[in-house]
Specification:
Layout (H helix, E strand, L loop, with lengths): L1 E3 L2 E3 L12 H4 L2 E3 L12 H9 L4 E7 L5 E3 L6 H4 L10 H4 L14 H8 L5 E5 L7 H10 L5 E5 L2 H10 L5 E5 L8 H9 L3 H4 L3 E5 L7 H4 L4 E6 L2 H7 L5 E4 L6
Parallel strand pairs: 3-4, 3-11, 4-6, 6-7, 7-8, 8-9, 9-10, 10-11
Antiparallel strand pairs: 1-2, 4-5
Helix pairs in contact: 2-5
Length: 252
């Protein structure tokens, strides 16, 4: 903030994402391009998205033995039928599980990177978990990846640490107007993105139900809407965001 002739002028942050960047121009497939025959968060879903030219949103956790895996849910039950949290599991145990009673297993981040190999960009969500080595381990893996990617998280302190470890990574803050089950102060942070001054995101990923956002919230950062589930919703929110993360339909 600069004071000129008694007036307060707020300096705009230089944006690192151009208007033609993939984050703003190509709909992003949520957990891959999956359907009744291809299970979400699987290598097959990622391959299907790549074959159809869609960037892919994936989620990552760390196991007790230090493996970074691609999996969305905190618990194993819905996708594998097993009990427990994924971050409380050893990878040797996870390798025995199959997704939705099929043949697909929980992939590692390294397996995803090797499969995609730069064919389409990746949007990688860092999920909350207790392992303190999670961020550094995942960042070190991604530093060796040659393809395009960006990272995002609901946790602003994760983004802050990523900013310190890898300032070159494009990073986005995930947020929502309705964080069910969270404590009041966490709900406030997730709704208002009140720690953006600390983690300095390059873009905002906001739940489509909370759009439009006020400019005082976005600070001119581009907005990506999640998770859009049909064409009618996509059309309705189009004026309020630059791009969407989608599932259950094929965008125009």
């Amino acid at each position: 903030m600069t004071d000129i002739n008694g007036e307060k002028i707020f300096m705009k942050r230089q944006l690192r994402i151009d208007s033609w960047h993939w984050l703003l121009t190509k709909p992003i497939a949520h957990r891959g391009l999956w359907n009744d025959k291809i299970v979400e968060n699987s290598l097959s879903a990622y391959e299907n998205a790549a074959l159809n030219g869609y960037p892919i949103e994936i989620d990552i956790y760390m196991t007790t033995d230090g493996e970074i895996v691609s999996f969305h849910d905190k618990t194993l039950k819905r996708m594998t039928g097993a009990d427990g949290n994924i971050f409380d599991s050893d990878y040797s145990e996870l390798k025995k599980l199959r997704l939705k009673n099929g043949e697909e297993k929980i992939p590692t981040l390294q397996e995803v990177l090797e499969l995609i190999n730069g064919r389409v960009p990746l949007l990688i969500e860092f999920k909350d978990q207790p392992n303190k080595n999670f961020i550094e381990t995942a960042v070190n893996i991604l530093k060796n990846y040659k393809g395009e990617f960006a990272v995002q998280s609901f946790n602003p302190m994760y983004l802050y640490k990523i900013k310190k470890l890898a300032p070159e990574f494009l990073r986005g803050i995930l947020a929502t107007e309705n964080a069910q089950g969270e404590k009041p102060h966490i709900k406030y942070i997730l709704k208002h993105m009140s720690l953006n001054f600390l983690c300095k995101p390059d873009f905002i990923s906001y739940s489509y139900t909370g759009l439009p956002l006020k400019k005082s919230k976005t600070k001119n950062l581009p907005v990506i809407a999640w998770t859009v589930t049909d064409k009618d919703i996509a059309q309705k929110i189009k004026p309020y965001c630059k791009n969407i993360i989608f599932e259950n339909f094929i965008p125009d």
